[in-house]
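FORM 12-B: Structure-to-Sequence Request
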């Protein structure tokens, strides 16, 4: 698929449309997908992992009440939406049965949605996505780009939800990724993630519901990750909103080699967020919110004429 296929003219997001105000928990009308995808400052997607084995905070938010409270706290710190995941995608993580993923996920999705929090759900399963949308999720964040479950694209297409198409090369039908070397990582990732976006379009997901994610850290080397970030402007030119998931990932450790915990990489995450927000990317996915909000505000001031 060529860049022109998904040019800005295909994506009905007029720059003249004023951005919707950030919706805080309990602050008014229910959030909408359109409110999240209209042009505006870089969105901050706060992470709530209801998992036992996520690399940064596994086990910390397994209790639904604590997970809901944490999501509301992240919103009060400046998040625009909350991404809830019930299955870790860290390297080597074992798959969680679908019924367990649902049991972990749905109470948190329903609780946050009822509190007026915009929610996305991090899953590769169509059955989980459908149930989460029914419970109030506005976006499905699929790290496999629709490759893990052949029913995912049709499921999202039949709903009003947005869809994050992430790049994870050679995702197998059994959910096990394979790492393949790149000869030209930027052009290859752009081509491959664009093909997945085209597949979503063919399945009936309108372009105004699509978001791209280059898949930082997913079967990519440290240098691959930096090369993709250096080419962030090229992803912008595809013509769809772009989400970057950089928060606390291992490749950032070289910025602070003495880091012993994932949270020690927050300062490096802020630096990357500032640069991405200065380019006008749609969103960043992050564990920590307050300093990310400051980064977005600073980048916005720098961009003003």
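FORM 12-B RESPONSE
SEQUENCE OUT:
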């Amino acid at each position: 698929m060529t860049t022109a296929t998904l040019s800005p003219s295909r994506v009905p997001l007029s720059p003249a449309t004023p951005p919707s105000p950030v919706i805080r928990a309990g602050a008014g009308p229910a959030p909408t997908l359109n409110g999240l995808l209209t042009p505006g400052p870089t969105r901050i997607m706060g992470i709530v992992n209801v998992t036992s084995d996520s690399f940064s905070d596994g086990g910390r938010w397994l209790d639904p009440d604590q997970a809901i409270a944490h999501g509301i706290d992240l919103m009060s710190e400046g998040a625009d939406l909350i991404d809830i995941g019930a299955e870790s995608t860290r390297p080597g993580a074992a798959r969680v049965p679908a019924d367990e993923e649902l049991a972990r996920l749905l109470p948190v999705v329903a609780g946050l949605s009822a509190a007026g929090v915009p929610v996305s759900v991090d899953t590769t399963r169509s059955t989980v996505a459908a149930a989460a949308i029914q419970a109030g999720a506005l976006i499905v964040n699929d790290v496999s780009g629709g490759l893990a479950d052949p029913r995912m694209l049709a499921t999202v297409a039949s709903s009003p939800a947005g869809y994050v198409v992430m790049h994870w090369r050679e995702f197998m039908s059994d959910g096990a990724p394979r790492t393949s070397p790149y000869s030209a990582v930027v052009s290859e990732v752009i081509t491959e993630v664009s093909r997945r976006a085209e597949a979503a379009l063919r399945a009936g997901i309108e372009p105004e519901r699509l978001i791209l994610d280059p898949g930082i850290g997913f079967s990519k080397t440290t240098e691959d990750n930096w090369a993709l970030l250096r080419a962030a402007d090229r992803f912008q030119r595809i013509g769809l909103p772009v989400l970057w998931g950089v928060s606390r990932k291992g490749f950032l450790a070289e910025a602070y080699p003495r880091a012993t915990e994932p949270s020690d990489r927050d300062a490096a995450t802020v630096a990357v967020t500032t640069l991405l927000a200065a380019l006008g990317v749609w969103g960043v996915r992050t564990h920590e919110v307050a300093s990310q909000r400051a980064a977005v505000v600073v980048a916005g001031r720098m961009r003003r004429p």
